[in-house]
Amino acid sequence: MRNPRSLISRALLLPRPLLPPPPPSPAAAAAAADRRIGGGPASSSPPRTRRWIPGAPAVAPLGSRTVPVGLAGALSLSLTLVTAAEAKEPPPPELVPKDVVLYQYEACPFCNKVRAFLDYHDIPYRVVEVNPLSKKEIKWSDYKKVPILVVDGEQLIDSSDIINKLSKRISTDDFVIGEEEAKWRRWVDEHLVHLLSPNIYRTTSEALESFDYIAKHGNFSATERFTVKYAGAAAMYMVSKKLKKKYNITDERAALYEAAETWTKALDGKDFLGGSKPNLADLAVFGVLRPIRYLQAGRDMVDNTHIGEWYQRMENAVGEPSRIMA
């Protein structure tokens, strides 16, 4: 299964023509010849500082030679990674919580909302994957749902409330949520999230695909993993039909496409609902869609609506996870 946090856009994989460097002037050519035989003066320019990016090849300055197409793709990827790193919006160091632990299910859309916020603001956090059958990892808490976020010893619950409280904590100004931003955050919690299960469990094959991901990434024993994949897929296939009736969904795919187009139109030509950078509504939509993006439902959504470009911008802006790996 493809990594949903991939930063590589399809455009980077396409060949792109490169213009050759302009021919040097006669004086520059002569100076270059002198340097090749060791007769030229040493350059007085200070050495250039390079920013190394893991996985990027070492390259010569672009003006020194014609760059092969494959190398151009690698350079484009490097530039994308740098842009993603710079797109994050970390708080001042003195406002960053010292100890953050997220109790979650990997595929939970509400947990992914919280992770999108933490990743975008580059707040380091540890993850405790909760076993959904026993929930032994959260027996210490009276609250038996996820996400639970423990911030410097304080327990926070409910994804939207968690994000509100963290936003206040890391904000250098008075934290105020705009009316438009609040409206779309409610839309995510009250509408968009309810379209996910009917879509990812729409058919038996899609239910198996979803539970294959859940079983592989969840906290299960070997025996539980097998049972969860097949029994869970069968159960949720049936549950998804009841959810369609509960939320008055006639055609689940059409409803998902309509929601994606509704969100895209709300951007009104901007990169993000927040303008030049994501706001809390952008992070909420991105967070709940992230678990399904590379499942069949998510692939169909991107192929049949205009949401793909915004989603790619969000992947770049949120960047690599700030999760602390054990």
Comma- or semicolon-separated keywords:
326 residues; transmembrane helix; disordered N terminus; Glutaredoxin; 12 helices; 4-stranded mixed beta sheet; mainly alpha; lipid biosynthesis
How would you portray this structure in words?
Its EC number is 5.3.99.3. It is found in: Endomembrane system. It is a single-pass membrane protein. The chain has helices spanning about 25-35, 70-85, 110-120, 160-170, 180-190, 195-200, 205-215, 220-245, 250-265, 280-290, 295-305, 310-320; strands at about 100-105, 125-130, 150, 155. It has about 325 residues and is mainly alpha-helical. Among the domains are: about 95-170, Glutaredoxin (3-Layer(aba) Sandwich), CATH 3.40.30; about 180-320, Glutathione S-transferase Yfyf (Class Pi), Chain A, domain 2 (Up-down Bundle), CATH 1.20.1050. The chain has a 4-stranded mixed beta sheet with strand order 2-1-3-4, with helices on one face. Strand 1, helix 3 and strand 2 form a beta-alpha-beta unit. Helix 3 runs parallel beside helix 4 (about 160-170) and helix 5 (about 180-190) packs parallel to helix 10. It starts with about 25 loop residues before the first helix and ends in an 8-residue tail after the last helix.
